[in-house]
Amino acid sequence: MERKRVLSGVQPTGVLHLGNWLGAIRNWVELQHQHDTFFCVVDLHAITVPHDPALLAHQTRQTAALYLACGIDPQLATVFVQSHVPAHSELCWLLNCITPLNWLERMIQFKEKANKQGSQTSVGLLDYPVLMAADILLYNADLVPVGEDQKQHLELARNIAQQRLNTRFAPHRETILNVPEPLIFPEGARVMSLTDGRNKMSKSDPNDNSRINLLDAPEVVRKKIKRAKTDAATGLTFDDPERPEASNLLALYALLSGGSRAAAAEECGQMGWGQFKGMLSEVVVDALRPIQQRHGELMGDPAVLDRVLSQGRQRAEPVAKASLERVRTALGLVPRNLELS
Ligand code: AMP
Ligand code: TRP
Predict the structure, then answer these.
(1) Does the beta carbon of 8 lie inside 6 Å of ligand 2?
(2) N vs C: which end of the chain shows fewer Cβ within 10 Å?
(3) What is the pTM of this model?
(4) What pLDDT sits at residue 77?
């Protein structure tokens, strides 16, 4: 099978949670064995909303360390920091100039976030999807693993590549940049909030009890699960749409205990909430233990992580520069005589 190019990224805002791991990074770990994978920490996206400069560098490192702690192998995958490869910002500018404003104004995530920011909404927030398109298109990614909520941004990246760039600026119908496909992983990968089974577990929920962060200490995990929303029924099931919390926690149990959903449903079908929550807590604590240990080692020895990120930058940069140069040339900018690799 031909190796496809894969690119994805997560913003270094807050600590990654169980949803980020089970819904995103765990899948990347599988992909790195079959494909040519690029995983970046998108720090330039993290500053599109107000942020604390004293925390950003730490959170960027922490996010990269968590990629590795979750099993991303820098021998197989290219792990890097978005802002270390300036071609991301540069391509973003070029794409800005060929992207219609109204394509951005109708992005759902922009409308939601801009509603919260009001008159403080930054130009960067509006431009966020173009920067994301640049991230993807620079590497000629074939596949982009993302959650449902990012599908609209991916469609935008496809439209920019196809309609605004390849069709308009390639006179001989050659492809300037590859048109990527989304890779959306199946259900079960969507982890819901502990305080409301109808909402996604999210970094931006102001209530920390709604999520389990990958770095939560065992007693914090136990406390959060103990407090997690339940219902009046006995027995855990996947099948009752009126019981989203039961279904979510049972799915977590199945995923982390390594058994099938059917086995989990069988095992916990008659169980009371108290007994189930105790079991679930231990499964979560056991799953997080090796991640936390590896993360601690990496953060305790910054030289190792810095080497990984520097190597990642060195592998990413030539690929990005070659794409950038093709776009520059297509748009009519004077070539910079790069030695293309
Ligand atoms: P975010 O935390 O929104 O920056 O998302 C980073 C990655 O994690 C994206 O690929 C999301 O689709 C994935 N993700 C975020 N929250 C969840 C969740 N609750 N369940 C599953 N995947 C998630
Ligand atoms: N917007 C994505 C998110 O919030 C993060 C992201 C930025 C991304 N650039 C990307 C994801 C490129 C995939 C590919 O999840």
Answers:
(1) yes
(2) N
(3) 0.95
(4) 98
